[in-house]
Design brief:
Elements: E1 2-6, H1 11-27, H2 30-48, E2 56-62, E3 72-81, E4 87-95, E5 101-105, E6 108-113, E7 118-126, E8 130-133, E9 135-142, E10 148-154, E11 159-162, E12 179-188, E13 192-198, H3 210-216, E14 220-228, E15 231-237, H4 252-269, E16 273-279, E17 285-289, H5 292-304, H6 321-331, E18 336-341, H7 347-358, E19 363-369, H8 381-396, E20 400-405, H9 410-416, H10 418-421
Parallel strand pairs: 15-16, 15-18, 18-19, 19-20
Antiparallel strand pairs: 1-10, 2-3, 3-7, 4-6, 4-9, 5-7, 8-11, 9-10, 12-14, 13-14, 16-17
Region (Disordered): 176-198
Keywords: Membrane, Transmembrane, Transmembrane helix
InterPro entries: DUF58, Ig-like_fold
Length: 423
């Protein structure tokens, strides 16, 4: 893609030249006439010259392709002239992902390149949660006079993936009667020992405990813990109260959407069925399913749906959470469990979770903590106390609640809580 145009850099020189020539004639000064001749040359040259489209190759390297949120990512971009003509004046603007901020250096660079020559420039970005694809680099080449320029875009596939795998999703024991990878409460065929029971006519011979029979003469059958598929719905809290964050950091909804992306990938990787919904914003319902097409649909919704916008909702568009719970209950099948990602900054989400748990849908809450910062601890002390109280209320209602300090990866929090979140 290219765009050639005039810069009109020498537009004023012709006026000055004619003026100098007129004064030289009237005043009979040969020196002014000579200077006006040189001005004519400068004014006419850009009209006779031209610039061809540059042939460029751009290579971009990042210091970390899978950084943690908040870390610095160094970017080095190398531009090479692969054409057979020199480029006298080249300006390059790298295609920094729109959601990432440059914290050091600049993605802009100017140079001149002979055929086959290359030049590099570097800058630093701050990583944020999500997948961030670089846009095409924009290059502007000018002719020696600077009177013409050509703009081209050079595509180079580069991506920074800040959606670290959470390792293992915090699923509970509610599963479907379909073979999968999640341990179920019932015994049967599987790989993990569950219990032994008295032999029943028709039990497979291979599951008889022959060692025990040799010792005691008693026939018993070994049962293994069955592995089944879970039906999971990830619900993101996008209520107005969730649009709060620490100074200089993304608000809780941004953190929740990033966590939902990680959880969705992990749930689907475990051969489970996954659905998607939201509290507090436009109605969003993606029924639980699996497969490559469904995975792409989940990613698309989390990245583009209006319910996950970074801006808080207008007051007239806010949706009643209690009504959303009633609608959600009507949509859920009996064996569906929920992963709710919420900062717990309001009682409405707590009441919604308690209602869902009371209707025999196992609920796990992942709660990003945005209430405390070292510089503003006093101002948010009340919010911290209220949030801690909501966490206690949920746990007293048999809801699994994971307190996630957003300064560390979600995967680290879940690994530390493994013994708790699988209850």
């Amino acid at each position: 893609m290219s765009d050639a145009r005039r810069t009109h850099r020498w537009r004023g020189i012709l006026v000055l030249t004619l003026g100098a020539a007129g004064v030289g004639l009237l005043a009979k000064r040969p020196l002014l006439l000579l200077l006006s001749t040189l001005g004519v040359v400068y004014a006419v040259y850009p009209r006779l010259s031209s610039v061809s489209e540059p042939r460029l190759d751009v290579e971009r390297r990042v210091s970390e392709e899978n950084p943690q949120a908040g870390t610095a990512v160094d970017v080095t971009t190398t531009v090479r002239n692969v054409g057979d003509r020199p480029i006298f004046d080249l300006r390059v603007v790298d295609g920094v992902p729109p959601a990432l901020a440059v914290t050091e250096g600049t993605p802009r660079f100017g140079t001149a390149l002979r055929p086959g020559e290359r030049a590099s420039f570097s800058y630093t970005m701050e990583a944020k949660r999500g997948r961030h694809r670089f846009e095409a680099a924009t290059a502007i080449a000018r002719d020696p006079s600077g009177g013409h320029e050509v703009e081209v875009e050079v595509e180079t596939e580069t991506e920074v993936d800040c959606t670290t795998d959470v390792g293992e999703a915090p699923l509970r024991s509610q599963t479907l009667d379909v073979t999968g990878q999640n341990p179920a409460d019932s015994g049967g065929s599987g790989t993990e020992f569950h219990q032994t029971r008295s032999y029943r006519r028709g039990d497979p011979v291979g599951r008889v405990d022959w060692n025990r029979y040799a010792r005691t003469g008693e026939l018993t059958t070994i049962e293994f813990r069955e592995e089944q598929t879970a039906s999971v719905v990830v619900v993101v809290d996008a209520t107005p109260g969730a649009y709060r964050g620490r100074e200089g950091e993304p608000h809780a909804v941004v953190a929740a959407v990033g966590a939902a992306q990680q959880l969705a990938e992990t749930v689907l990787d475990g051969q489970n069925h996954l659905g998607l919904s939201v509290f507090g914003r436009d109605d969003l319902w993606l029924p639980p399913s699996s497969g490559r097409r469904h995975r792409l649909r989940v990613q698309e919704l989390l990245a583009t749906h209006s319910a996950f916008e970074a801006r808080p909702p207008a007051s007239e568009t806010t949706v009643d959470v209690e009504a959303q719970v009633e609608t959600l209950l009507a949509r859920l099948s009996d064996n569906t469990q929920l992963l709710v990602v919420s900062p717990l900054l309001g009682d409405d989400v707590v009441e919604a979770v308690q209602r869902l748990e009371a209707e025999r849908h196992r609920v796990t809450v992942i709660s990003p903590d945005v209430t405390v910062s070292d510089t503003d601890a006093g101002g948010r002390a009340l919010a911290t106390i209220e949030r801690d109280s909501r966490l206690r209320r949920l746990r007293q209602s048999d809801v699994t609640a994971v307190d996630w300090e957003t300064s560390e990866p979600l995967s680290a929090t879940l690994r530390r809580r493994t013994g708790v979140v699988h209850g």
